[in-house]
Amino acid sequence: MAESVVLDPVDLHILRILQNDARTTYREVAAEVGVAPSTCLDRVSRLRRSGVILGHQLRLDPAKLGRGLEALLMVQVRPHRRELIGPFVERIRALPESRALFHLTGPDDYLVHVAVTDTADLQRLVLDEFTSRREVARVETRLIFQQWDCGPLLPPAQDPAGHAHLSADRGPARSAGDDAGHPRVSG
After folding, report:
1. How many Cα atoms are found within 13 Å in the side-chain-facing hemisphere of 39?
2. Exposed, middle or buried, 109 (CB in 10 Å: 0-12/13-18/19+)?
3. What is the pLDDT of residues 45-98, one digit of tens each?
4. Calpha distance 136→115 (Å, rounded)
5. Shortest CA distance to 139 belongs to which of 149, 128, 148?
6. pLDDT of res. 21
7. What is the DSSP string of 71-137?
8. In sequence order, what are the beta bridge partners of 101?
9. Which terminal CB of the chain, N or C, has fewer other CB atoms within 10 Å?
10. Is the distance from CB of 14 to CB of 37 less than 8 angstroms?
């Protein structure tokens, strides 16, 4: 079981602000939260050290970079053994077309989010980088018509003392999306 991190209401407020705009200065965050800038900096540093904050990312629009077609590839690997999946995962992560890779339960072993130029490029990617691998038994492809960001990743509940608990290995938080329901071209 992952180590739990206790977050108080000030930590949660800081996280909400930074999730919505990671470029917000510590001075601006401190003013909104009602703490000194040095206190804000100390708290953010502690949240980084504890693994709650995993980093900051620059989001790019794939379509504006010539990769306007996005797809999800459901991949079945056989045999599903550690010595085969390690190199498979590293190869797929290294592909410039790969956006995200998920290891799954169920009939499919992996879900790969890719961004390509067009259907011919998608076909090339599937044939040259996936089905040509000996360990890949099957690939199913689904085109993405639209994608929406969802709300911030924050704990839904607090303990009686007003502290929230987060698992230290929950994975990277995605930035808050447009909750007006407008689509975005993945980022």
Report:
1. 11
2. buried
3. 999 999 999 988 888 899 999 999 999 999 999 988 889 899 999 999 999 999
4. 20
5. 128
6. 87
7. EEEEEEESS--HHHHHHHHHHHHHSTTEEEEEE-SSS-SEEEEEEESSHHHHHHHIIIIIITSTTEE
8. 112
9. N
10. no
Give the Cα separation of 77 and 133 in Å (integer): 9
Token digits of residue 146: 């639209």
- Has this prediction a pTM greater than 0.85? no
Could you tell me if 61 and 187 are in contact, meaning their C-beta atoms sit under 8 angstroms apart? yes
Query: Which tokens in the block code for residue 28?
Result: 């601006």
| Residue 20 pLDDT class (50, 70, 90 cuts) | confident
**Cis bond leading into 183, ω under 30°?**
no
